[in-house]
Design goal:
With 357 residues, the chain is an all-alpha fold. Among the domains are: 133 residues, Alpha Horseshoe (Serine Threonine Protein Phosphatase 5, Tetratricopeptide repeat); 84 residues, no CATH class. 74% of the residues lie in helices and 0% in strands. It is built from 20 helices and no strands. Helix 11 runs antiparallel to helix 12, helix 12 packs antiparallel against helix 13 and helix 12 packs parallel to helix 14. It is elongated and about 80 Å long. It starts with a helix and ends in a 19-residue tail after the last helix.
């Protein structure tokens, strides 16, 4: 009996399908290291078969081991085409910011498997990083037509609004909110779409819902609304709304910065500028983005007043903040242009859970 049990265990150890199930179970139980170890056994047993490479490479993606994921994908592709392997390779190159190679790989994945929505979602994420918004919108349109995803529908709606189609934007954002009613940004995009369509009362309902969902961060929703009012040329409403926000949140660096940005500062704005300098000097728990925004606005305010040395001091501090986020950028002008690459799509669920695809 013991011999038979032992032979069964040996058999399972040499059965790629059984090992795959063990690896997948380990991953589901949160043991990524064990899943990877078993996947490496499968690679040896199958002599790097494409399906084994896909699973092992996917696990390396989960571990953020981008170079190893590319290596495994390329080993598999040397034995034959596979949409999964092209897609994994593309996602790894995207994580490494090797955008040209990422695009080539993702387009090959789409060529082989055009009805697999995540390839389109990853391509859209890539195109946004390359500031190719219109192409990203097209990729998202194709992706959500295959598999509706709340985050991608809402991102698509944002782009449609950007390109002047509030009707399509509202339709897609409502679809996204049906899948995830608690998405704060989705509710703000619904509000913006309705405002562009002249349906102000309905828009206000979405603004209120977004603020309620944001809870302690409701101020951020109010500021989004103010910026949108300014974009629409409704400067009086924007200014009065912003004044109420500043009064309600006297320690808000974003609100004060937006107030300074909303007009050309004069000597009558010195109390506002002093308040902003006080906020910058305090040991507040500001995010890097908040600090950069505050320093930029202070620089702009002093520039308006003709006090260039003070303006340059704050712009230099802004550049230092950017350098801490992007240490590889050595020149301020490169740092500034790099900020736009921080936009991100929600990462869709792993695209290769079925390694045999």
């Amino acid at each position: 009996m013991g011999g038979m049990a032992g032979s069964g265990a040996v058999g399972m150890a040499n059965d790629p399908s059984a090992l795959y199930e063990q690896s997948r179970a380990a991953l589901q139980n949160g043991n990524l290291a064990k899943a990877i170890s078993i996947a490496d056994q499968i690679l040896k047993l199958t002599n790097w078969a494409p399906f084994a490479c896909a699973w092992a490479a996917n696990l390396r993606l989960e571990a953020c081991d981008w170079r190893r994921a590319i290596e495994y994908a390329q080993r598999g592709l040397s034995k034959g085409r596979s949409a999964a392997l092209f897609g994994i390779q593309g996602e790894a190159y995207l994580a490494l910011s090797e955008l040209g190679m990422a695009e080539l790989s993702l387009r090959e994945a789409i060529k082989d498997q055009p009805n697999h929505a995540p390839w389109w979602f990853h391509l859209a994420r890539l195109l946004l990083r390359m500031d190719r918004e219109f192409e990203a919108m097209e990729a998202l349109t194709k992706g959500v037509a295959i598999t509706p995803d709340s985050g991608c529908l809402i991102r698509l709606a944002h782009l449609e609004l950007l390109f002047g189609d509030p009707v399509a934007a509202f339709a897609n954002v409502i679809h996204g909110l049906e899948l995830d009613p608690g998405d704060v940004i989705g509710n703000t995009i619904a509000a913006k779409s309705l405002m562009e369509l002249g349906r102000v009362d309905e828009a206000n309902n979405y603004w209120r819902k977004a603020a309620d969902l944001a809870g302690s961060n409701a101020e951020e929703v109010d500021l989004i609304r103010v910026r949108f009012l300014r974009e629409q040329g409704q400067f009086v409403d924007a200014t009065s709304s912003l004044q109420r926000i500043v009064e309600a949140h006297p320690d808000s660096p974003r609100a004060h910065a937006l107030m300074a940005d909303s007009r050309r500062c004069s000597e009558s704005d010195l109390p506002l500028i002093e308040r902003m300098e006080s906020l910058a000097a305090k040991k507040l728990n500001l995010s890097s983005g908040e600090r950069m925004n505050l320093e930029y606005s202070l620089g702009k305010a002093f520039d308006d007043l003709g006090l260039m040395p003070s303006a340059m001091k704050h712009w230099s501090q802004m550049a230092d903040s950017i350098a801490r986020i992007m240490p590889r950028c050595s020149k301020p002008e490169k740092r500034f242009s790099a900020v736009s690459t921080l936009r991100r799509l929600p990462r869709p669920a792993s695209v290769t859970k079925l390694p045999y695809s």
